[in-house]
Amino acid sequence: MDKKRILVLAITGILIVLGGITLFINHNLESKDEKTKTMVSTVMSVDDSTFTIQDSNNIIYTFGIVDNNLSVGDVIELEYNGSLNKNKALQDSKVLGYKTIKVSNDEEGVPSEWQDNGIFKDFYIFAAKKLKTMSLDEKIAQLLLVRYPDTNPVETLEKYQFGGYVFFEKDFRDKTKPEVKEMINNLQNVSKVPILTAVDEEGGTVVRVSSNPNLASSKFESPRDLYLSGGFEKIRQDTINKSLLLSELGLNLNLAPVVDVSTNSGDYMYKRTLGENTELTSTYAKTVISASKGLGVSYTLKHFPGYGNNNDTHTGQVIDNRTYADIEKNDLPPFEAGINEGAEAVLVSHNTVTNIDSSNPASLSSNVHNILRNKLGFTGIVISDDLAMGAVSSIDNVAVKAIMAGNDLLITTDYEESFNDIKEAVNNKTIDEGLIDKLAFRVLAWKYYKGLIFENQK
């Protein structure tokens, strides 16, 4: 047999062996993928062709309908095969069946499916007890962070019992410190559950409080100016100074820092950011969250999943066509750094990030919220950007969609519409009251964690 023929036979043999190995591996992978898997979850919505569930980690999945006996609010053990993809609007996995699970409470009355190792876990018992004393209206209202009304703010709060108010520059204009304290105290005095009192005190171009010379000797500087003149130590001290001023006035939530990554001075968001790369912006996020601890003011990482070089969502829809790989590499790390440092809240933008969810703004996208909860492991409060902003204001039932997407707290100007739409959705079974309970429970646990309710009880 000549050498050429021997070589051909040898190569053929090797190819046959490699083919066999490949078939074996593929068979094993397919077999593994076809194994029956189970997941305990709560049914969020059901229609003629799909049903949506939320698992114990607050990840939301939508499947093709399995039968017509599912009801919103059911806790089920779902059987399926295939792999789940938290970034897909509709799962490819085949649903094999399900069984309904009877919900049980532990000895302290916290539903088992609400229990996790979250940042507020030490206060779940207290939150569960408080929740039992509240009406449906009061629970819905806890989910609303309302823009401070121009007229009758105290009477409006007394009627609705909102989760909190957001204050803007005009609400502090010309007021003295005693007058601001009185304004806040009058609100807290009519609140059955102490309210969140929120501002955007970012520094630089967004200074709701320090723009008033009666309240601060000078405006807080922008993050970039602080960094260029004194590095992260100056940012740390600035955070402490902000917190002390806000706390003195009775303000307990700062809708800052902006941890979007922007290095181009032409970007819409640039002047509000550190203006540096991902690594330095991550250090900025860690510095602010660390410095804020123990001073009575919670800070909010924004605008998830990262604003990039996009335009202003106050005025209309903004489309972000960056790849998910770019966002994952450049934009998510500062949020992750802040979360790992103990951030209590994250605010989600209204940008439509096409490579995560091309159909919905981030604030209304379960895919975006799944990344925040699952990939970054965030267990705190997710806040929507203002639902009155141009990017989402024309969307029907926007408050209901924001709840269904995974937000805990909704910033809203039209509180009557938001409240009524959510209540109607509960009454017509679009939203299960159990979901409202869970979200209100989370907000209450945060307020206990912050010491707001204990202070009120004293």
From TrEMBL:
Keywords on record: Glycosidase, Hydrolase, Membrane, Transmembrane, Transmembrane helix
InterPro entries (alphabetical): GH, Glyco_hydro_3_AS, Glyco_hydro_3_N, Glyco_hydro_3_N_sf, NagZ_Beta-hexosaminidase
Protein origin, superkingdom: Bacteria
Segments traversing the membrane: 7-25
EC numbers on record: 3.2.1.52
Domain Glycoside hydrolase family 3 N-terminal: 136-444
Statement: the UniProt record of this protein carries the keyword Transmembrane: yes
Biological-process GO terms, alphabetical: carbohydrate metabolic process; peptidoglycan turnover
GO MF entries: beta-N-acetylhexosaminidase activity
Top-level EC class as recorded in UniProt: hydrolase
UniProt cross-references to SUPFAM superfamilies, sorted A to Z: (Trans)glycosidases
Keyword Isomerase annotated: no
PROSITE patterns for the chain: GLYCOSYL_HYDROL_F3
Catalytically driven reaction(s): Hydrolysis of terminal non-reducing N-acetyl-D-hexosamine residues in N-acetyl-beta-D-hexosaminides
PANTHER family named among the record's database cross-references: BETA-HEXOSAMINIDASE, BETA-HEXOSAMINIDASE-RELATED
The family this protein is said to belong to: Belongs to the glycosyl hydrolase 3 family.
Protein name, as recorded: beta-N-acetylhexosaminidase
Organism: Candidatus Onthousia excrementipullorum
